[in-house]
Every structure is written in C-alpha cells, then in structure tokens.
Amino acid sequence: MQHLRHKPPRxxxxxxxxxxxxxxxxxNVNLSRIARAASCCxxxxxxxxxxxxxxxxxxxxxxxxxxxxxxRSLPPVIKQLKAEGYRIVGLEQTTNSHDLHHYAFPRKTAxxxxxxxxxxxxxxxxTLDEAIEIPVxxxxxxxxxxxxxxxxxxxxxxxxPDG
Amino acid sequence: MQHLRHKPPRxxxxxxxxxxxxxxxxxNVNLSRIARAASCCxxxxxxxxxxxxxxxxxxxxxxxxxxxxxxRSLPPVIKQLKAEGYRIVGLEQTTNSHDLHHYAFPRKTAxxxxxxxxxxxxxxxxTLDEAIEIPVxxxxxxxxxxxxxxxxxxxxxxxxPDG
Lengths: 163, 163
What we know:
Two copies of one chain form a homodimer. Chain A is built from six helices and seven strands, in the order E-H-E-H-H-E-H-E-E-E-H-E-H. By secondary structure, chain A is α/β, with parallel strands linked by helices. Chain A has a single domain, classed as SPOUT methyltransferase, trefoil knot domain (Alpha/beta knot), CATH 3.40.1280.10.
C-alpha cells in the first residue's frame, strides 16, 4: 500500500447547487474551516454576515475559490434564494428537525448555519423551510459549528457525488 | 419552529467499538477538535503518539470522557488491537483505498489518522488492513485532518447508530 496524497480531484458533472448561509459567527477560524471543507466539496459560494473574513492560514486555497458574500442582513438574501428555487434548510436542533442520517437533500439547498453559542436567531428560524439535526451520543452534547457543517457537507455530497 | 438546543443525547445500545489511533499531529488543536467530535459520537478511546494533549477550550467536556492513551510507538498497540479483533483502517489516499461513500465499516474498527502534512508513515501504512479515502472535488484538494476524521466518524455512526 503506497501513499497517493493529493490525487487529482473528482470532476463534477454540473455545478454544486448547495450554498452556505452563515449567521454571524464568533470565530473567523470556524468560518475559514467551513470554507476549506466547502471548497474541497466543490462549493463556490458562502453568504455570511457579521465580521466575516477568511483566514488563508486555515482556509488555504479556498480563499481564492470561495465567493464570500458578506451581507448586513440575511433574511433578504434568503428570500432571494427561495425565489430562485432553493430549499432553506437550517442546521439546528428544533421542534420537528429531521435527522441528517435520513434526510434527502434537495439539490438546490441553502444550508443556514447558526452562531457557535446562540445558534439560529428567531428571525432566521422563521425563514427556514425545515431544519436538520445531527445525532449526538456523548458529551459535550453539541458539535462544533464547523464539525456539524462538515457532516452536512459530507451527507449532501454523498447524495450528489456528481453535482 | 423553535430551538431545542442541547437535546438529551441518543443512547447507545452497546459501547462504541470504534477506536481512533492518531499519528503524531502537528497541532493539539486538531487533536482536541477530533476528541470533541469523537466524544459527541460516543467514542471513549483515542490512542495517540507524540506530544498529544487535549485543550479543554477546544475539546470541552470530551477531556473528561475520552481516555487519551499516549504511546511512544503505535505499531505495538495496533498489533494488540488486531489481536483483539479490530480491523485496522487508515484514513489516507493510497493505492486501492476505498471510497468512504461506499465503505462498510466493521463494527470493531481502529481508524488510523495521519499527520497533517505527511500523512501516514510507511511504518504505519504497513500495519493497515485497508485504507479509506474521502472524495475531493475542489481546492485545496485535501481536507484538514479533523475535518476528514469528522466525515469518517459521521459515516461510521450512520452505519452503527446504536453502537
């Protein structure tokens, strides 16, 4: 068995139609980790709010690939995404949230990610078509925001390996 | 739709039989991120080498749950795990590595994780029963080590939701 590090990436047959929408995060390190993972998954667009900025030390080449759109307010852009046919899916434990293990993503999904401490605000929750949650079995009973986003990215890409 | 943050965790019907084996990592932040995700997934054991230490700011309560065993050398403990019936699975792009999307984990799996820069050494590659790789579609063409481990944890737990 031999190393084959940094194999050429897979080719998407069509552009990814998954967009990330990030509430203001406490940490641009978390945002940058999300951006690196998203870029590796073939995403090209992250809409964020707050003091969002990518750190090249963490996000690496994703800084050059990911189109980071920083908005003062997220509900208008979510409304626009909805008008463009995107399903607005929050990554949050809520009443009636779906288990990510059994959730079938629509190809056109806008995944809405909440703040590390406070999650999604009432204002953002009100914009969602639905929410997905990730099973937790042990302490600290909540995944880091970038870890949770990574799991959702993985599941989406498994469902749409070719874009 | 209302918040239900920090719901009670799921119960495992039997203990997790997934063990993480970490080569010396450059960053204890990465190790601590892995520990938090692993603990949330119900794992209890990480075997590491090098200057492995968990940072409570990152790993949170996982520090109190995860049994971190620091060894000078990993091949002897891998040999022991193999004798106990664990399949030794490297998380690495190698010749003949399996696609994580289509890989069926044995319940008793020791997942071997390589260094951020250099991956798994020849010495560790020689101990593996097999390797799994995660599809990449875009730059920087490689996932962060904690991100990749998160994806493997997610896939294992989806296959064994009850332990």
